[in-house]
Amino acid sequence: MGRRAVGLARQAVRRASNVTLLLYALALGAGIGLASADYATRGGYPFGGVVVGAWTAWPRAGSVGADPYARAVNARRGEIPLAIGEGMLLTAAQDDAGRTLDATCTYTIAGITPPARAWTVTVAGRGTRVPGQTTLREGFTSTEILREPDGHFAVTLSPVVQAGNWLPMPRPSGPVRLALRLYDTPVAASAGTLDRSALPAITRTGCAS
C-alpha cells in the first residue's frame, strides 16, 4: 500500500505539473499575442506603404483588399480611411534628412502637393495626449493656408509661436507624425508614380537646447 500511495502521489504531481505548464504556455502565448497586436496597431500602418522621400503613401489603406493590420489600425483609431476613388493618405515620421520628427524641434513643410480637389495637413503625437494640455490647431486645409503667388506654401511646425502658417506641436516632447490627405486626386490609383518634387519638403530648422 505504501508503494502504491507513493506512485499515485507521483502521478498526481506529474499531472499537476503538466496542467501548470499548459496554463503557463497558454497565458504566455496570449500575453505575447496581445502585446504584439498592440504594438502593430499602435502607430501607423505596418505594411503596404509606398515611400516617396520623407513621405509614405498608403493607397490601399481604405480599399476592399486592405490587409488585416490596416483594418485593425483603422478600427483602433476609429477612423474611416480614404478609399481609392476618394483620395489618398500620406504620412511622415521623419524629415528629409531621415531624422525622426521631434516635438522639441522646429520644421518647415514647404512646396506643393499633387493635383487634388482639396487637401489637409495635420500633425499628431504618437501615444496618449498629455492630460490637461490645451487643444491647439492640429492642421491646415488647402482653402485656408497662406500661399506664395506661384502657389507654393510653407507651414512652420514648431513648439514656439511663429508668423504665417504656424502648426503647433501636439506635445512638449517625443516623436510626432504628419498626415497629408489628398481628396479627389488622380494620383490615388498610381502612388508608385509619385515624384518627390510633387510633395512638400520637410526641413528641420532648429531644436530646443
Distance between the termini: 80 Å
What is the typical, i.e. mean, pLDDT? 76
The beta-strand count equals 10
> Helix segment count?
2
Low-pLDDT runs: 33-41
Give, in order, the helices and strands: HEEHEEEEEEEE
Specify the biggest β-sheet.
Answer: 6 strands, antiparallel
Strand content: 25-35%
Which geometry do the CA atoms define?
elongated
Radius of gyration (Å): 25 Å
| Biggest sheet, spatial arrangement of strands | 1-2-3-9-5-6
Based on helices, strands and strand pairing, what is the structural class?
Answer: alpha+beta
Q: Estimate percent helicity.
A: 10-25%
Overview of the structural elements:
By secondary structure, the protein is α+β, with helices and mostly antiparallel strands. The protein is built from two helices and ten strands, in the order αββαββββββββ. It has helices spanning 2-42, 68-77; strands at 50-52, 55-58, 87-92, 105-111, 118-125, 139-141, 153-158, 165-168, 176-183, 201-207. The longest helix is centred in the first third of the chain and has 41 residues, at 2-42. The model is unreliable at 33-41 (pLDDT under 50).
Features:
single chain, 209 residues, alpha+beta, six-stranded antiparallel β-sheet, four-stranded mixed β-sheet
Topology, pairings included?
Elements (H helix, E strand, L loop, with lengths): L1 H41 L7 E3 L2 E4 L9 H10 L9 E6 L12 E7 L6 E8 L13 E3 L11 E6 L6 E4 L7 E8 L17 E7 L2
Parallel strand pairs: 7-8
Antiparallel strand pairs: 1-2, 2-3, 3-9, 4-7, 4-10, 5-6, 5-9
